[in-house]
# Entry
Amino acid sequence: MRWRVIWCKACEGGVDQGCGAAYLRLMARAPLLQLTDISLTFGGNPVFDGLNMTVQQGDRLALVGRNGSGKSTLMKVMAGLVEPDTGQVVTPAGVKVGYMEQDPDLSGFATLGDFARAGLHDGEDYRVEMAAEGLKFDPDRVVATASGGERRRAALARLLAEAPELMLLDEPTNHLDIEAISWLEEQLSTTRTGFVLISHDRAFLRALTRGTLWIDRSEIRRQDRGFENFEDWRETVWAAEDDARHKLDRKIKAEARWAVEGISARRKRNQGRVRALAALRDERAGQIRRQGAALMELESGQQSGKRVIDAKGISKAFGDRTILKPFDLRVLRGDRVAFVGPNGAGKTTLIKMLTGEIAPDEGEIKLGTNLDIAIFDQARSAIDETVSLWDAMTGDPEMRVSGRSDQVMVRGNPKHVVAYLKDFLFDEAQARAPVGSLSGGEKARLLLARIMARPSNLLVLDEPTNDLDVETLDLLQDILGEYDGTVLLVSHDRDFIDRVATTTVAMEGDGRAVIYPGGWSDYRAQRPDDAPEVEVKAAPVTSKPEITAQPVKSGLSFTEKKRLDSLPGIIERLEAEIGKLHEFLAQPDLFSTAPAKFAKASDGLTERQAALAAAEEEWMVLAEKEDG
# Structure
């Protein structure tokens, strides 16, 4: 056989494909999958129209887009599970495409291990065992008794064990704890397999991707840069669109003026320009405006007491299994407390004890006065998937408007149910659709709509980030930053915890819970793997646990040094909140039109000014002590 001659820089000359360097360069960008002129419609507006894209060997792609934009549908087209109306999906001979879907079908298999091992050759079972250890599921678990999260982990283990040439991963980090996410991140970072990844986890996407596929209004764009560059790219594209649309509008206005004036100035108009004007108007009408941000809003109800939760010596066990050893925690008004730890460590159980839903075995919990609690449940159990979105809203007793079946009560004011659903990016057709037809992200938005319809002052968010797109996560983060109430948060999203939390409670196993100031990154910095054992002491959530350690040379104890490091961030946050309150109170007619809000903002301003003065004084004392 005669080899085709190609050029090889490594050999400084023409060589055949037997040269390893040349062959690797030739094969590195070989296509694994090609979509050509794909169109798909599900009985309404097109999901895709004339879509073209190629996935090449070595690609590590983030697939991003708004909830409902078609990300999961596109993956199913790529996997061959959904047939497009027109176009071709081409996979080269010998290339295997593996797909991990959000709701895997395990029917026909007795155990999770049977499902995960299906398709493997003899002697390859060890791959499933390794994945099961890293992803933390029991291969011997009977399918009928397995949770949704366990089923997803088995599907992920199956995909990793099969090691196809191209992996399609649809929200693989959902239902994984941070330890399992880190394990998966390590596996994907070292694989030579190409992959396309849908995820809401920014840290996960930033660490792994080298390119981005962006679905926007039925079109797909590609940039060969990782997710960390996505937002700048998106804003650049949108700015260019706005500029082009503005120029087109000006041109249409000028041509329309000419057409009108031409009637009186000339008997016969230039029909070519008239036809051109009609074409411009058709072009403008054909442009699809991008979907705006959801109009989510949280309103604090009556002000709670300064102490929201005071837990002393609480513990919990189920049989021989200790969930929580004696633990003290004080949550003050305005705190944002994140609870982190492995799945099964007891995070949700601890929050249910703190909010009074279940009782501790020992110890005492005192809830503050005037609490209005709103709960975002990770299981979405508050939503009946068999009813329509309309009925899910109007059927809620806390939202029902007496005598009206088409309106809901939104923060004290009646509003048409469709108008309120539109605030959360649902269209009128979806209002009559069953909740079960929604994507995971859309279900999360619906639950947020129910929670945000009424005032609250204690918000409990149990895995709120699952399935939400990055734009909605950004908005939710901003809303929580402006929320006057208190937040208890359970999440495995490291980036979201860093952006929101002021205190982190780490469930570190064997019933141990330890309090740290700051978010996830602060927790990791304060609690390295080789850190000494920590004894939990009674303390407000803004303080730190006592740690046995040698004093640093600066004259500060370990605890004081960490406090000094955290104070600038606390001061910056208080200054920002004071600035927003000053701006709010500066409205000239606020006192006369909304005296209650004026009084509430004034009280909040006084409290934050006092807290700022105390924080600045504490910083000065510790800084002077550090300087000797």
The chain has 20 helices and 24 strands. Residues 230-265 form the longest helix (36 residues).
